[in-house]
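Hallway conversation turned thread

IA: we were arguing at lunch whether anyone had actually written out DNA topology modulation protein FlaR-related protein end to end. Turns out nobody had. So, for the record, here is the sequence (150 residues) and right after it the structure tokens. Reply here if something looks off.
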Amino acid sequence: MLQIPAHDLDGLFWDVQADRYGRRAAEDGRDTKLAGIARQEQWIVEGVYYTWLKPVFERADLIAVLQPHVFMRDLRIVRRFGYRKLGISTSKQEGFGDLYRLLLWNHQYDTANLKRAMECIEPYVHKFIHCRSADELVSRVLKSVNQSIV
């Protein structure tokens, strides 16, 4: 499909050298890495962060918020936790307390974090789309690309 480098913002926000889940990376290192991504010709960044993303918001051609139903997100969080516990997926060790906190965070995302994120995105609303599924996102992006070609 697309040959565009994709970056998971969790890899910038969290300390990837830490042995446990939940340790934040140093802000200056994180910001330097983000600036390097933003200087690239093409990129996709993925994550729920917003307060420190101004460099990518400014350079982005498109800002998409993908918002599946909260229970779908719960299912994915629990499934990922299970895969990690079973050793199917390699990642930092998470405890049940970490899972609980992540599920709580997930349930307040729509009412709290997303509203604050939208305030940060407001200056870039002309680049913004909101989707409920990955299929909807792909469909809208392809439609947009096709319209710009014609």
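OS: looked through it. The longest strand covers residues 63-66.
IA: good, adding that to the notes. The two ends are 20 Å apart (CA to CA).
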